[in-house]
Design goal:
Layout (H helix, E strand, L loop, with lengths): L2 E5 L2 E4 L4 E8 L7 E7 L6 E7 L4 E4 L7 E6 L4 E6 L8 E8 L16 E2 L3 E6 L1
Parallel strand pairs: 2-11
Antiparallel strand pairs: 1-3, 3-8, 4-5, 4-9, 5-6, 7-8, 9-10, 9-11
C-alpha cells in the first residue's frame, strides 16, 4: 500500500520559512515524480512544484519560483519543499503526490495527474 505523509506545516509570519516533508512508504521515490500542490479555501487545487527524483529535474509554478525549493533524500525516501519568503497568499493545505512514470507527467504541474496522494498539511501565513 502506498502512503504519503506530509508534515512540517504550521503558522508563520509573512517573510518566514517552512520546510514541508513528504515521507513515502510502499514505493521508492527514486522511481517516481513527486509533486507538491496546494488548495486554498474556495479555490481550486494548483500545482506548486515537482521533482523527478531519479534525475533531479525540477519544475516550479511561477508563484513558487525563486522562493520554494524542492529536494529529495533517497535514503529517507522523502521529498521536501523548502518555502522561503512566505506570503499570506501562500496560505493553503499543501499536498504531496506520487506519479509514475515521471516522463509521462506534463510540465504544467497538473495537480491531479498522480497515482497517489497524501492527506495534506496546513500552512498559514499571517500578515
Amino acid at each position: 500500500e502506498v502512503q504519503l505523509v506530509e508534515s512540517g506545516g504550521g503558522l508563520v509570519q509573512a517573510g518566514g520559512s517552512l520546510r514541508l516533508s513528504c515521507a513515502a512508504s510502499g514505493i521508492t521515490v527514486d522511481d517516481y515524480a513527486i509533486g507538491w500542490s496546494r488548495q486554498a479555501p474556495g479555490k481550486e487545487r494548483e500545482g506548486v512544484s515537482r521533482i523527478n527524483v531519479s534525475n533531479g529535474v525540477t519544475y516550479y509554478a511561477e508563484s513558487a519560483k525563486g522562493r520554494f525549493i524542492i529536494s529529495s533524500d533517497k535514503a529517507k525516501n522523502t521529498v521536501y519543499l523548502q518555502m522561503n519568503s512566505l506570503k499570506p497568499e501562500d496560505t493553503a493545505v499543501y499536498y504531496c503526490a506520487a506519479g509514475w512514470p515521471p516522463s509521462e507527467l506534463s510540465r504544467k504541474l497538473n495537480p491531479w495527474e498522480y497515482d497517489a496522494f497524501g492527506q495534506g498539511t496546513q500552512v498559514t501565513v499571517s500578515s
